Predict the structure.
Amino acid sequence: MANYPDWVLAHKKKGTYINKVGDRYYLYAAHSERVPGTKKVRRVCDGYLGRITQDQGLIPPRDRPGTVFCSVEYGLSSLILSLCGNIHSGFRRTFVVNGDFIMAASILNYIYGCFSQELFQHSWLSMHFLGLSFPDRTTPQQETGIQQGTRMIAETLSRTFGDSLAYVTAVFSLVTLVSSGKGFHCSRLPESVPVFVERYALSWRADLWQKSTT
């Protein structure tokens, strides 16, 4: 678990999780469920419970029907992980305890050019790697692993998509998971996403999530 202040952790109960954005803390209800056909477990947001402050404690949300409470990047990070399973497996063998962190940080570093706990929490990766927290400081060995992972991800995607790489990564990065308090829904897919899925025989899927119609 992240190193949150005691006045924040006092509101962390079973079936909830905390999301830090800047210097603010937000509490969400959630449950875990297995991804059909796999051994993977994902965290499903069940709704926004409010903002936590040191002076006022938990401040419940105002009743605003239809408000989208949170959104996480999904398309590109999940695409990378689906294509780079061998890299992930290698990190788990090499780093053992920190293999998942090295892989998640490498994916974020490829996408954004940097990595952090905040970027991780706003990514589907935080739902895939349940309970993973980024360390306050990385060791030289971890830094080397992340740089290597970033290069290997770049090589894998370049080899897979060739001249289409820039456009593929652009359109997949538009795919998000959004929550309106009743679990996560996949955003509307750009028209070219299913075309690329078929053209390159990708194992990437969006139908694991209830699609939004808005």
Q: What stands out?
A: The radius of gyration is 18 Å. Confidence is low (pLDDT under 50) at residues 210-214.
